[in-house]
Recover the amino acids of this structure.
């Protein structure tokens, strides 16, 4: 929970480094928030008889609210492995780009300090 709070607290902080744990916990809580918005939306749609309208609005609002913190933690995660934030655009390459970015997200931190700051693990 502390990583989610940290990401929301630093929601436009594109500088520094983010550990794997910080990135993946934020991704988990982001998914949980969207799922909860879906469940609440389905219940309200059933209650009010609106086919999918409330669900759509809730999911869009939650997603828009988390897009900046998600992008910021993604860039800080790339910084942690010594890559520039511009590497996020590799995901635009068809078929292999998203796979390469996913592999980057699973890589361990670059030991010691790098151009983006000290190692958040303290090594």
């Amino acid at each position: 929970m502390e990583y989610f709070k940290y990401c929301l607290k630093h929601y436009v902080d594109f500088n520094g480094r983010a550990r794997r744990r910080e990135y993946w916990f934020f991704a988990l809580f982001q998914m949980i928030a969207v799922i909860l918005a879906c469940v609440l939306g389905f219940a309200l749609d059933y209650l009010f008889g609106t086919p999918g309208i409330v669900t759509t609005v809730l999911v869009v609002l939650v997603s828009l609210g988390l897009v900046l913190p998600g992008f910021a933690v993604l860039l800080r995660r790339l910084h942690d492995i010594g890559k520039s934030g511009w590497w996020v655009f590799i995901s635009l390459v068809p078929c292999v780009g998203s796979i390469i970015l996913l592999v980057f997200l699973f890589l361990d931190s670059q030991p010691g300090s790098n151009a983006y700051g000290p190692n958040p693990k303290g090594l």
User: Anything to note?
Assistant: Helices lie at 2-9, 20-48, 53-80, 97-106. The CA atoms of residues 1 and 12 lie 19 Å apart. DSSP finds four helices and no strands in the chain. The chain has a mean pLDDT of 91.
